[in-house]
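A favour, since you know our structure tokens better than I do. Just paste the record in under my message, thanks.
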Amino acid sequence: MLTINNNTARLKREILVRIARFQLAGKLSEGVHSIPRELAPAGSPSIRCCAYHDREILRQRVIARLGCSLEEYDEEKRLADYVTEALAREKPTWPMLTVLDLACNACVRAHFMVTNACQACLARPCLANCGKKAIAITGGRAHIDEEKCVNCGLCLHNCPYHAIIQIPVPCEESCPVGAVARGEKGKQRIDYHKCIFCGNCMRECPFGAMMDKSQLVDVIKHILAQKTVIALYAPAAASQFRTAPGQLEGALLAAGFSQVLEVAWGADITAEKEAAEFTERLEKGETMMTTSCCPAYVRAVRRHTPALEDCISSTRTPLHYTAEIAKKENPQGITVFIGPCLAKRREGMDDEYVDYVISIEELHALFIAKEIDPAKAAPAPGKRLPTSWGRNFAKSGGVAQAVKARLKEPSRLKETLIDGLDKAGMQRLAEFGKIHSGAVPPGPDTPNLIEVMACKGGCIAGPSVIINPKAAISQLTKYAEKGL
């Protein structure tokens, strides 16, 4: 897993900050052309073959950050034309991801490779454990015949010198549902029918070729038009800034939002409703329910494990309930969810109460552009305080604990957690699907409530966070302790 401190993340932030600064100054159409040149000045070390190639890639990155799809890229269009298109749109466009072909490394097929650490030892466990006879010892070293190799990894796991390594295709390797694959021209393509929008490919591609289409330009446009723009911030967003109670709210108001609501309010509603639904299902004789707050998980079931679909709680997400509150209080208000999640962009498109979704990365860029330090912002406490349970929705295990806290008979609960929808997590879903369908009999330890988080660690480890999850969990703990 790539850390958040890398050149790809830095470049993304720099582009977002520059776009925001130009737009806030009313000079986006005029200034946008300078961004590629500023980030790849003449004489600077090039990432590709030359500065001009780098600038073309940067130009396309700017287009994605304006919220436009690169699949429709026209090299004859000026960046100002894309700005006009971005400012004219009335709502975000599908899909939320776009692939920058020019940046894609067209990685070779994932394979195993023998390094010079090989000792051609007497035991030769690599050769002995290869069922396909794909390994031979020649010239005092093991060699793998890639035509015979099936990438099972037995040679890697059995080598006592760790002399065999796996060369992966990061975006493919990180996708839990096989939605990313090489296209006809050798570049990676996303199958949106399979995709669950977990954001793993976007986070793991070391070339930054998998890109989310930003909605920051849209939000700033409405702020500048002095419309009622309501920020709905996820508990995970609060974990990303080292702020005291009320300071994040103050920073958001200083950034131009008209009103600020904690999505932890909605989490309390979700927990209350899921607890009631869980009790009702048990009374009806049902044996299994899963949580519903993670949209990547819900899509994973509907597209890949349909046997579990009727186990998903019918309760809506914290985002939905918070946005509903905001719209009922301000019918003409524009709701903007702020969180670490790509799948929430998909949820926002489908929810009648959600207008826009921006990432924590985008909010951070807006703060930098407006020279706002959240840790120094004047506190502006919200009008209603959520519970600590609601705020802890952001970490793995938090949802199940919030539901349990609201049960009249918590001893009836047998919860389990799927912490991260990697390939192993998807396999666990499939196993629970077999139990639910009757293909496999349940055991005495079979859970009746399954919490699923697509991101390992929970939302605090989402694909668009700005601090290390270990630091985020510490900040979240402090934030949650201030709840009711």
Remarks:
- The radius of gyration is 24 Å.
- Residues 263-283 form the longest helix (21 residues).
